[in-house]
Amino acid sequence: MIADLLLHGEYLNVYTGEVLEGPVAIKGDRILCVGERVQAREEVHVELILPGFKDGHVHIESSKLAPQEFARAVVPHGTTSVFADPHEIVNVAGVEGFKYMLESSREVPLRVHLMVPSCVPASPFEESPHEITPEDVKTLLESSYGLGEVMNFPGVIEGDLNLIEGIRASRERRLPVDGHAPKLKGLDLCLYLFRGVESDHESTSAEEALEKLRKGMYVMVREGSASRDMGIVKGIPHTRRVLLVTDDRSASSLLKDGHVDHLLRRAVEEGMDPVKAVQAVTINVAERFRLYELDGIAPGRLADLTVVKDLRSFQVSRVYVGGKLVAKDGKPLFKASKPRRIGVMKVPPLKPEDFLIRAEGEVVRARVIGLTGSLITKELVEELPVREGFVRGEHHLAVVERHGRTGHVGKGFVRGFSFTGAIASTVAHDSHNLVVAGSNEKDMLLAVEELARVGGGQTVVKDGEVLVTLPLPVGGIMSDLSAEEVAAREEELIRAYRSVGGIREDPFMELSFLALSVIPELKLTPKGLVKVTESGISLVSPLL
User: Is there a single domain that holds both residue 484 and residue 379?
Assistant: First the structure.
């Protein structure tokens, strides 16, 4: 049999952990043989051939790129497959959002394996315009690769029937069930697993990850734009149940640092054996999702291959998907159509004082959300002054319901942004209402009005002037621009934030997670301040 393509070079055998001499022969979209000389229509000499990189847990929408542009950003970095939970767009657009991601992914040479969002809304404390029912889950599982992260872990532990039914439906089809279990341990962790959840990507310490590994979980070590947990690899065994994932990564970060190739560099920096690191983004991912034809370089496997310079820099020179060259020397060799716009903005009429909390006296004790640099926040208790009947904090925080359902505005305080003016975003996990932080209520109102005007996005405001805005007309969470254009605008936002005194590295990513009611310790939703502990989620007053 004559091969279509023969790649001459070394290749990494992820089954044995050996670097072996090629060649690798490709016929059609599959690998014909390895290590054997065969006739071929085309022969190419390359460096080191690896299986195509796979991101085992990602939310494409968090890049602010539609699937077409996301593919153009990540494929040149060696990524050939992603396992994507589209719960961001599904919160905004419901089942139609899932179909949007499915259709948009079909035209690009990136294998986008969609997981069914399991918690829309993420918890009863959020206000999403849509709800994914158990019947929706069963229907969507027919065109997906498993159940997305089950975020409402207290509900699972307590036996919430809707959650359990979704998990059961996935397991009956022998499909994976992803989890979300920050700081969960002991008997509660056992109960979470007993219900059928299999993985977790929220470990922030080696001790936490080790307990989950010992209890049989797949542990996904995350290195995203907001939460960077790669350091925990130093304290855990690098078994076939460890995966490296991005979870959430901005467009500018993708273009600057890379995608899965960046995970590999970071893992090796932290002391992980390079071969084990590659296994954690190839065969480990394929085995976890039961897609064995993607696990490695062997006869009969799909010819998804990434050529790199070496096992330390992981500099990508060529990328093949289904035997076709789709990227070379950091550039995509494919085009994509312009993303279609979807979604609306229905912000209620507001006044400046709607962002403030009333109180009597001169001083009050208040709960304040403390930024930590990760998705987890701290509950701070501070004495705050009262002026003209309103409490004044370093920064006020508000979450405005923007889907035209309730018009609620949740109010609180946050510490750590260190700027003057206001920043706002309609990227606000997971219901994607409008979140705004500011040093004064007038700039906060202007920021909200600006995002309502452009149909959603992110903005920086100071002294009654809009400094920079990034419109996100695809559901208020994704752009219809190229990755390069989005990254450039993201950098403008950061520069504007710095110009008004900001000190956070990625303020908009941190801002977007302040509304997520399933991650400890304090978060804010349109219904109010939420406290998340190991024992559950509850509404609490900002004032003590």
Answer: yes
pLDDT profile of the chain (544 residues), mean per 10: 96 98 96 95 97 97 94 97 95 92 93 93 82 92 94 88 93 95 93 96 94 97 85 94 94 93 97 98 98 97 98 98 97 90 88 96 96 89 96 96 94 96 95 96 98 96 98 95 93 96 91 90 95 86 95
Q: Are residues 245 and 187 part of one domain?
A: yes
**Across the chain, how many H-helices and E-strands are there?**
15, 29
Please write down the HEC assignment for all residues of 320-383. EECCEEEEECCEECCCCCCCCCECCCECCCCCHHHHCCECCCCEEEEEEEECCCCCCCEEEEEE
Beta strands in 225-342 (DSSP E): 242-245, 305-308, 316-321, 324-328, 331-332
Picking from 148, 144, 110, 376, the residue whose alpha carbon sits closest to that of residue 260 is 110
pTM: 0.89
> How many Cβ atoms sit within 10 Å of the Cβ of residue 312?
12
In terms of phi and psi (left: phi > 0; alpha: psi -120 to 50; beta: otherwise), the region of 348 is beta
Which positions ≥6 away from 387 have C-beta within 8 Å? Answer: none
Q: Which of 339, 303, 256 lies closest to 74 in space, CA to CA?
A: 256
- Give phi and psi for 438, each to the nearest 5: -160, 160
Distance CA 345, CA 455 (A): 6
Residue 361's domain comprises 352-540
In 3D space, the residue among 12, 1, 9, 7 whose CA is nearest the CA of residue 281 turns out to be 12
**Does residue 170 sit in the same domain as residue 225?**
yes
Q: Are residues 503 and 358 in the same domain?
A: yes
Report CA torsion sign: 229, 233, 234, 237: positive
